[in-house]
TrEMBL record:
<keyword id="KW-0547">Nucleotide-binding</keyword>
<dbReference type="Pfam" id="PF13581">
    <property type="entry name" value="HATPase_c_2"/>
</dbReference>
<dbReference type="GO" id="GO:0005524">
    <property type="term" value="F:ATP binding"/>
</dbReference>
<keyword id="KW-0067">ATP-binding</keyword>
<keyword id="KW-0723">Serine/threonine-protein kinase</keyword>
<dbReference type="InterPro" id="IPR036890">
    <property type="entry name" value="HATPase_C_sf"/>
</dbReference>
<dbReference type="InterPro" id="IPR050267">
    <property type="entry name" value="Anti-sigma-factor_SerPK"/>
</dbReference>
<protein>
    <submittedName>
        <fullName>ATP-binding protein</fullName>
    </submittedName>
</protein>
<dbReference type="InterPro" id="IPR003594">
    <property type="entry name" value="HATPase_dom"/>
</dbReference>
<dbReference type="GO" id="GO:0004674">
    <property type="term" value="F:protein serine/threonine kinase activity"/>
</dbReference>
<feature type="compositionally biased region" description="Pro residues">
    <location>
        <begin position="156"/>
        <end position="165"/>
    </location>
</feature>
<keyword id="KW-0418">Kinase</keyword>
<feature type="region of interest" description="Disordered">
    <location>
        <begin position="83"/>
        <end position="104"/>
    </location>
</feature>
<feature type="domain" description="Histidine kinase/HSP90-like ATPase">
    <location>
        <begin position="13"/>
        <end position="128"/>
    </location>
</feature>
<keyword id="KW-0808">Transferase</keyword>
<feature type="region of interest" description="Disordered">
    <location>
        <begin position="138"/>
        <end position="165"/>
    </location>
</feature>
Amino acid sequence: MNQETVRSFSLLLSATPRGARLARRFTTEQVRAWELPLDPDRAEHIVAELAANAVTHGRVPGRDFRLTLYVIGGTLRIEVTDTRGDRRTLGPQHPGPADESGRGLVIVEALSDRWGVTPGRPPRKTVWAELNFVPHPAPSSALTPALKPAGSAPAPTGPRIPPSR
């Protein structure tokens, strides 16, 4: 049976600039805590754009947004869920050089391996992005002979006898 380790982190944040800042910081710290072999800045930039969109375009007074991070196999999935499912998320816009906004999803598209929008239970929607990475190999419980420290004794064979009490 092939079992993959699934890690998850989820947090409800206020739909304010402070909530967006906290989303970025929590993402960076969680990616570091999980010791994922990817640049935490990539994940932080994606969350910055998705959280800013949730705060700017998905905000309903009194309702929060949710940040969720999943690791399944070699993929980090970032989800930001807001309460404006009635507002469709358009694809990346290509603003002019003088425009001050409109680049968020262009950045998400450039930094992620995949991204999309999933409608949720009304009134929610989730904008997600995925980052692929090569997972660390699972630690082996037995050292191969080539990796045993020099001068170490051979592994005991036969039945293990517990110490007497």
